């Protein structure tokens, strides 16, 4: 029963294995991706976020249950790396905070660079823990504005050390298999998801938005932790080598046009990525650009436009016009 729900969620919410969409051509994405009014990701301005001092929207602390012992299998679906809970496993559950009811964990996946920005600042990586509202079928969940909840955790890059390797260390054994896309999954293993938790899981921003992949349904309660976890430069380089169909796998920033709340425990000042982390991100972009020079200047312009949340050109058309004889 549970595995059927997981498979259906993958097909329904855009976490599919199909090649019918690409990060390079976001303007071609179907569904609400181009017509929706509350799309994700967004740039969160910390000073504009409403501190919920009266607990009107954020009603009490977030409660995480069962995240320390999760049996999950890993896969490269051509768009991201994701770890999905195994059949018949009792899923972890999150409740409290801005959530009304319980939400059951389904899978987590990775984006590099980060999809969200805080005060205009991107991070090297963003982890999404995806949950479906407990008691709903998938069909019901994607039709309700509160059907899904995604906990976003930012990661910054530090020098290699045992302490900095800890958060993502359990994911490393699967990476050699996941470098390229496969039809199957890497064998399931038990993962302690709490190792990827922020240092204070009560310090976050929250807003209503959408999935960041087609069909971009606006059914997500976003909970974005504002204190990043640490990963090493070596780990970041390993993830950067993964083939996800392009040089990166993050969606452009979308218009904010809605209220953003922040928890009372949220940082007074936003954690800024370390200089080392920023350098790693820039170097990653630089090496990626080198790998796509053959696509011409159109691709370079698109990288810049997508990083700042702007629309991109159709490079295939641009190349055809550029190469056309006068």
TrEMBL record:
Residues 1-18 form the signal peptide. It comes from Bicyclus anynana (Squinting bush brown butterfly). This is Carbonic anhydrase. Reversible hydration of carbon dioxide. The gene is LOC112047924. Keywords: Lyase, Metal-binding, Signal, Zinc. Its cofactor is Zn(2+). The keyword Signal applies. One of its GO terms (molecular function) is carbonate dehydratase activity. InterPro entries: CA_dom, CA_dom_sf, Carbonic_anhydrase_a-class, Carbonic_anhydrase_a-class_CS. Belongs to the alpha-carbonic anhydrase family. PANTHER family: CARBONIC ANHYDRASE. SUPFAM superfamilies: Carbonic anhydrase (SSF51069). It catalyses: hydrogencarbonate + H(+) = CO2 + H2O. Residues 19-264 form the Alpha-carbonic anhydrase domain. It is an enzyme of class 4 (lyase). Its EC number is 4.2.1.1. The keyword Signal applies.
């Amino acid at each position: 029963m549970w595995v059927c729900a997981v498979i259906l969620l993958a097909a329904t919410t855009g976490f599919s294995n199909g090649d019918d969409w690409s990060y390079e051509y976001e303007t071609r994405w179907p569904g609400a991706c181009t017509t929706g009014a509350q799309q994700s990701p967004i740039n969160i301005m910390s000073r504009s976020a409403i501190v919920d001092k009266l607990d009107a929207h954020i009603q009490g602390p977030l409660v995480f249950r069962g995240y320390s012992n999760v049996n999950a299998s890993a896969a490269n679906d051509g768009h991201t790396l994701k770890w999905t809970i195994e059949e018949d496993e009792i899923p972890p559950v999150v409740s409290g905070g801005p959530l009304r009811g319980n939400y059951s964990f389904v899978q987590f996946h990775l984006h590099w660079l980060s999809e969200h920005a805080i005060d205009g600042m991107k991070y090297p990586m963003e982890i999404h823990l995806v949950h479906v509202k407990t008691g709903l079928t998938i069909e019901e969940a994607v039709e309700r504005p509160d059907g899904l909840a995604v906990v976003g955790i930012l990661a910054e890059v530090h020098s290699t050390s045992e302490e900095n390797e800890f958060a993502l260390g359990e994911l490393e054994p699967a990476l050699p298999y996941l470098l390229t896309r496969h039809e199957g999954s890497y064998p399931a293993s038990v993962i302690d998801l709490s190792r990827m938790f922020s240092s204070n899981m009560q310090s976050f921003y929250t807003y209503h938005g959408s999935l960041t992949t087609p069909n971009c349904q606006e059914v997500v309660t976003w909970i974005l932790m504002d204190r990043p976890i640490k990963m090493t430069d070596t780990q970041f380089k390993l993830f950067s080598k993964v083939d996800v169909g392009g040089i990166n796998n993050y969606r452009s920033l979308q218009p904010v046009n809605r209220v953003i709340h922040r928890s009372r425990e949220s940082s007074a000042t936003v954690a800024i990525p370390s200089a080392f982390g920023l350098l790693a991100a820039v170097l990653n972009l630089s090496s990626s650009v080198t790998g796509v020079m053959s696509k011409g200047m159109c691709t370079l312009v698109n990288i810049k436009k997508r990083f700042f949340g702007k629309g991109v050109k159709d490079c295939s058309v641009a190349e055809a016009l550029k190469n056309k004889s006068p």
